[in-house]
Amino acid sequence: MIHYELLDEQGILVVTPTGPLEKSDFDRLKEVADEFINTHGQLAGLMICTETFPGWSDFAALINHLKFVKDHHRQIAKVAAVTDSGFLSILPKIADHFVKAEVRHFDFADREKALSWLNAAGESL
């Protein structure tokens, strides 16, 4: 399950997983992201904020997650993984090979620092 908040003025989508990710979570994120991208051209940033990574509820959720990344990585300038999870902390190293967005890891306690970094991308929107 994912909660999300669109910081419309900054062009930042904040995503907070609260349980295993479900296929429908990415359907909702797609709608929110696509609506903003269609109006503004891109999202300045995406913040994934979770102390620990909850995983996926099933294989369909994993596939929908990968499809979301594939379909949106060119329209998101920066991604901040704000987490103490070992899995997500290595995300920037892996993502460099697959996505256009600049990806950076921040410790879970550094949410405001991550938001400031993402806001720097939004100044041009």
Key structural traits:
single chain; 125 residues; alpha/beta; Transcription Regulator spoIIAA; five-stranded mixed β-sheet
Account of the 3D structure:
With 125 residues, this protein is of the alpha/beta class. The protein has a single domain, classed as Transcription Regulator spoIIAA, CATH 3.30.750. 42% of the residues lie in helices and 25% in strands. The chain is built from 5 helices and 5 strands. The chain has a 5-stranded mixed sheet with strand order 1-2-3-4-5, sandwiched between helices. Helix 1 packs parallel to helix 2 (59-72). The longest helix has 18 residues, at 23-40. The mean pLDDT is 86.
First-residue to last-residue Cα separation: 30 Å
- CATH class group: Alpha Beta
The whole-number mean of residue pLDDT values reads 86
In DSSP terms (H or I, runs of 4 or more residues), the helix count works out at 5
Strand order of the largest sheet: 1-2-3-4-5
Question: How many DSSP-defined strands?
Answer: 5
* Major sheet characteristics: 5 strands, mixed
Uncertain residue segments: none
CATH A-level architecture? 2-Layer Sandwich
Q: TL;DR?
A:
This protein is α/β, with parallel strands linked by helices.
Topology (elements, then pairings):
Elements: E1 2-7, E2 12-17, H1 23-40, E3 43-49, H2 59-72, E4 76-82, H3 86-89, H4 91-95, E5 102-106, H5 111-122
Parallel strand pairs: 2-3, 3-4, 4-5
Antiparallel strand pairs: 1-2
